[in-house]
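Dear colleagues,

As part of the handover before I leave the project, I'm documenting each prediction I ran so the next person doesn't have to rerun anything. This entry is a single chain, and its sequence is reproduced below.
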Amino acid sequence: MAVKVLLSLCCVGACGLAVYLYHILWLVPQRVLAEFRMQGIGGPPPSFPYGNIADMREAVAAAKAARASARRAAAGGGGIGIVHDYRPAVLPYYEKWRKEHAQSASAAAVTAGHQDE
C-alpha cells in the first residue's frame, strides 16, 4: 500500500516537473519572442534547446578571421592597427545581428515615437 502511494507521488511529481520545465523552457521564451515581434524587433530564430549558439560561434569565428586579416594588413602597411570600436571584438554576434536587423528595430523605434504624440 505504501509503495503504491509513494509511486503515485513520484509520478505526480514527475508530471509536475515536466509541466514546469515546459513552461519555463518553451512557453516563456516564445511569449517574449512574440512580444518582440509585435514591437517590430526581429532577430535570428532560436533553436531549442541551444538558442542562437551556432550563430554566435559563426560570428565569433568570422570576427577572429577579420581581426587577424586586419592585423596582417596593418603589420604589412606599417600601421599600428588599433581600432577603438570594441563592440565587434567583444560581441561579434551583436554586430552581425545589429546590421541584419537594425532596419526593423529602428522602424519600430520610429513607430513607437509617433504613437506617443
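DSSP finds four helices and no strands in the chain. Residues 2-116 form one domain.

All the best with the project,
I.
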